Amino acid sequence: xxxxxxxxYIDNIEFRFGVEIEICIRIxxxxxxxxxxxxxxxxxxxxxxxxxxxxxxLNSILSKASxxxxxxxxxxxxxxxxxxxYLYRLSDMKETLAEYGSEEDNKIESYEVPRFEIDQSVxxxxxxxxxxxxxxxxxxxxxxxxxxxxxxxxxPILKFRGVPTPEKIKEALLPYLEFIGxxxxxxxxxxxxxxxxxxxxxxxxxxxxxxxxxxxxxLLFVLDEYIKKEREYYASEFRVEHSAFAKPLYKMTNLLxxxxxxxxxxxxxxxxxxxxxxxxxxxxxxxxxxxxIFPRDSWITRKKYGIKVKQFEILEFRVFKSDxxxxxxxxxxxxxxxxxxxxxxxxWIKRTPEGLANLNDLFPKPSGGRRTRRFTKKNKQxxxxxxx
Length: 388
Hints:
By secondary structure, the protein is of the alpha+beta class. The chain has ten helices and 14 strands.
């Protein structure tokens, strides 16, 4: 198999993706409006469940979407504090309890409809007190207690075919972002407790089957492409602040390969070390040579690193910080899909007639740990001044 045999290989690939947005929504005029104009105070929130917060969001923002957007997303789902799902029909605001195994439940579990739920790790005004020191990433000011609510917005499955261009991603994702209210950016805020997750899978339309992104050896091609980006942009664009739920994978792989350099020549063993939750790796930490162990729940199959393997050949890119800016959300979906595309092309080119793949040049040694600088206009000016 080579390029000459099938030059339009990527045209047959359908990218299927979804986003999970952890975010705070402000309670103020024009955004979330409290029932009957009651001021949002601690007393107001006392006994106020996520169900009631969601209804406030539904009435203030979701129900006011344009007819075109409502036609695209006619139903939505909400998981309440008891982990019970409800389905809402926007045409008449009908609420239906989604019984297990029902038609409503199947729609929700197959990600056919937008989903909304609470994430207890996200800190917004509804979980703060006067002594909290949570900083609004957008303004640099302290988040005010009781003046916002936390919500996780999960998109339905979105699709496009072929090369992941900005135009295709915008066409697929922008209607959803408009639906959840993000065109009114003043109503939203983010902080270091919140993340933006992009889930990606790939479907071969010509062969009519899902591409096995999470299995050996294709996953190694994906991780190789991912680590190149993560190493360069983790601290500057993707996450910025350290997160216990999206730690940089490149640091773990560096330590793993330093401790067991033989894994460079045995990529199957390397794959096992990355994906087997029972595979415990010891590494040398710090100048005192103290021994440490990666905990069993820290591997790529768990919610610990910037990328996570999920069921049904889905990769979850957890590395991105939460953002209320639409262009950043679109860019991060493109980053994720391009990483997958490059991995597919690299794997496809390196395959032999026997179906094997050359893995020798995957995960090269880092060049002294020096970060690659982004060649921007500003950097170019600095370099020119230095030369002069």
